[in-house]
Amino acid sequence: MEQQIAYLDNAATTRVSEEAAQAAMRMMRECFGNPSSLHAMGVASARELNAAREAVASLMGCQSECVYFTSGGSESNNLAVFGAANAKARRGREIVTTAAEHSSVACAMKRLEETGWTVTRIKPDSSGNIDPRAVADAVTDQTALVSMMMVNNETGAVFPAEQAAKLIRAKNPQTLIHCDGVQAFGKLPLRVSRMEIDLMSVSGHKICAPKGSGALYIRRGVRILPLIYGGGQERGLRSGTENLPMITALGTACGALEGQVQEYYQHAAALKTRLLEKLSEIDGICINSPENSSPYLCSFSVPGYRSETMLHFLESRGVYVSSGSACSKGAASPVLTAMGLPVPVIDSALRVSTIYDTAEAEIDRLVEALKAGIAALAHR
Question: What CA–CA distances, in Å, run from 70 to 27, 64, 234, 236, 364?
Fold first, then answer.
């Protein structure tokens, strides 16, 4: 008999929806022309490209001309950070970010430091939240860029990007503001054009589109420099023949979420409430996510039981979670470390992340397997 699984690592990646998979296959087998070609097949592909751009823009809450396709969140973050830095270097070589960013931002910042940039990192408090005034206070007349995520990929903390942006604008209107929106896109209601930010990164494989799909929002009038040069695709900002199967699948996934974001949000909130109630019945559990965190993410610890050990026990029971960010590959969480949490809490952290079709039964299987793990591993 096939073992039922509880896949609760959706912040790492999601199962591609049937509709998105079919859209990708259709573009690979039927509408496979190069969108830059002038013949009928190229024109048909260009039409599909434009339709996908419209769908992504609609879910983000912006004009389609502000959407630039990339290979995913990491490329979007790198394009935003390096593109903004390269465009603004003459005005100042200072950057403000947080100490809790995704590795694709954190590593880009480290590289800029190595080339002479000054990077100020604002730490979250012990609950995982960021003070927007602390971010704005760090901005000077030499600050070229502020990069601050919207939803933390480990704790689910919702960072006050919109509030910080208003304060930053008042202090230095020339500073570009970038937001990593990967864990917010398709999960929280977004109207990015109404926010006072210049750049937002999103990814497809967090919302049931394939890996290799993503986009960068660039506000009208904002100029950043490309990282890839060539044929001038994506209006010269991201050269290379467009990956139309993945782009179309991303557009399809976005279209499926139209009008559904609030309903799915309530579903995720109910699942998280159920999880927290059941975890509260287990002695010694520490919740690392703040109260106002995204309902799609929950970080908790079982001090005394190392993350990797518990993770593999849960896997043996058909339950799949993460020990933190999937990009950290088992390293100690920089986010929980920045929060100043005790080492036993950091070393035993687990991340549970749901998606639109996650069932209550999956939460229940997790809790039962966790209880079994605590009982079994205590005797080893």
Answer: 17, 15, 9, 13, 37
Q: Residue 262 in contact with residue 189, Cβ under 8 Å? A: yes
User: How far, in whole angstroms, is CA 265 from its chain's centroid?
Assistant: 16
| Phi (first) and psi of residue 185, to 5 degrees | -60, 125
Distance CA 179, CA 159 (A): 10
H-assigned helices in the chain: 18-29, 40-60, 73-88, 103-114, 132-137, 161-171, 244-257, 261-279, 307-316, 334-338, 343-347, 360-377
Q: Active-site positions?
A: 327
Q: Please list, in sequence order, all residues whose beta carbon lies within 8 angstroms of the beta carbon of residue 318, skipping any fewer than 6 positions away.
A: 3, 4, 5, 6, 365, 369
Rounded to 5°, the CA angle 232-70-136 comes to 105
In order along its 380 residues, the chain shows pLDDT tens digits of 456 899 999 999 999 999 999 999 999 999 999 998 999 999 999 999 999 999 999 999 999 999 999 999 999 999 999 999 999 888 889 999 999 999 999 999 999 999 999 999 999 999 999 999 999 999 999 999 999 999 999 999 999 999 999 999 999 999 999 999 999 999 999 999 999 999 999 999 999 999 999 999 999 999 999 999 999 999 999 999 999 999 999 999 999 999 999 999 999 999 999 999 999 999 999 999 999 999 999 999 999 999 999 999 999 999 999 986 555 555 778 999 999 999 999 999 999 999 999 999 999 999 999 999 999 987 55
Neighbours of 239 (CB within 10 A): 14
Match 């999601």 to its residue by tokens: 14
**Number of alpha helices (DSSP H) and beta strands (DSSP E) in the chain:** 12, 12
Q: Which of 167, 107, 105 is nearest to 133 (CA)?
A: 167
Euclidean distance between CA atoms 251 and 260, whole angstroms: 15
Closest by CA to 93, choosing from 164, 148, 170, 145, is 145
Q: Which residue has the tokens 């992504």?
A: 56
Using alpha carbons, select from 134, 63, 61 the residue that is nearest to residue 99: 134
